[in-house]
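Fold this sequence, please.
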Amino acid sequence: MYLRNPLHMLAMLAGFVFATATQAVGADFETETGWNDQLFPSFIIATATLKLPDEAVEDRAEDEEVLGDPQGLLGVTIEADEDDMPITVTISCGAIMEPSVFKGTLAEAGKTYTIFPKVKYKYDLLAKRSQPGPITVTYKVEVGDEDAEETSETLTLRSINDCPFLMVEDGETVDVCFMFAAYVNEQHPFVDKLLREALNTKIVDSFTGYQTKEKADVYRQVYAVWHALNQRDLKYSDITTSSAESDTVNSQYVRMIDESINNAQANCVDGSVLMASVLRKVGIEPVLIMVPGHCYLGFCLDSEGKEIVALETTLLGSKLDGEPAEIAGVEEVVSEEWQSKNSWKTFTAALAIGTADLAKNMEKMQKRDDPDYQIISLVAARKLGILPIAFQSDREFVASPKQPAREEQEEKPEDDDAKE
């Protein structure tokens, strides 16, 4: 089964200098001002520990005219007046970073160099950025013994919920859909609480991942999570518009896990990253499946990832009439009593729809030539250093109103649809 590895996307990203906005400052230097004069906190956090592919590192090392941070977004472009010209570049913005400095030399007179200091971002503050707004970034350049020159630029700092997924400029395109993996947070404190609610349903006695090597046990664990979310009346909400716009960067609004859980709303990406977070926590490997204008969840039925099925997560919280969808391999997953419940009907319907769509589009995904069709592997993303966006909110977990009292949990399992 094909799992998209974001390695080749990152290799392209490492050389994506052309997408940074450039502002002229007199005749001495120009400023590099992020993507279209915008900075995305989600991207800065997610790629903070990014492990660039060897070929990308080698390409950047061979490019003697780009100095400093190979993933830099803020910097200056300047022409060397002499060989081995000493230069110090300082970038500062108290709202999001500590003053960040590059010191070095420009080797050859007449050449133009782009310099990206390693920025000391305040990651905790970036993670709390809930709305877009202006920031002032100051650039200071000292050349040799000359007096420092300084200028400031006003940029837009986007919301942490704004997820960039495609960058386009001058006909060049870079796919950064791996960014959706940053919203999968298996260590989020709400995940354990949601798992407790899933255990309270008595669908499973424990979460064991792939330990039993039985597909039925994997399905049962996933259904327990699905049912717990249905108890919360989590509803599909088609809110995807970002809070700001860009001519060169396509982005989508993605809710944090705590926002989806407490507000009982989720668009296709929200529901998928929420379920993926919980499944990774219990040792079941999820994937994010991207098709034009849509995202849904996939998960591996075995520890080797040889077989993947998919869930149409927009069916969370829906109501269905009739009998559950008939799917090979799930007939004995739960009892007949559970099979009569609405949550089982929506689960099997979501499984049938998602898996069928995955099979239909698999050939396009395997070609790897269309960013609209891909499977994002969470395993690959984490190995490459794509970090989850850490929980930085004061929100408290809102317990499900349909959870049975503890005494009732000990006496008997659920036995009515009213608790869904």
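The chain has two domains: 7-160, 177-419. The two ends are 34 Å apart (CA to CA).
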